[in-house]
Model the fold of this input.
Amino acid sequence: MKIGKALQDKLARSLDRANVREAKGRRGIPVPLPVDKRCTKIAVSLFNADLQRIKAIRAYVLDQRGKSLSTSAIVRISLRTARLSTALTDALDQAAKENGRR
Done:
């Protein structure tokens, strides 16, 4: 009779684990984000100087706020803080020279 009891206990434990996994696996239908919260993925090519600047920005924010930023976050804050001025077009000319194209 001991063998039958052991098998019953093993089966009960197995069913309990299966029920727990099944309960964890059930997730509701994800709610779509509002249009203003959605993002678009893009790919960019960066020069070594640009990558060094990203590292410098990451190090600065880490030093000031104690938070490491992703490259995406750095690009976003760079875009949001860029001033529309002749410095922007000068930087464009400099990047074009580095690129060797138009």
Summary: The chain has a mean pLDDT of 84. The chain has one domain: 2-99. Residues 2-99 form one domain.
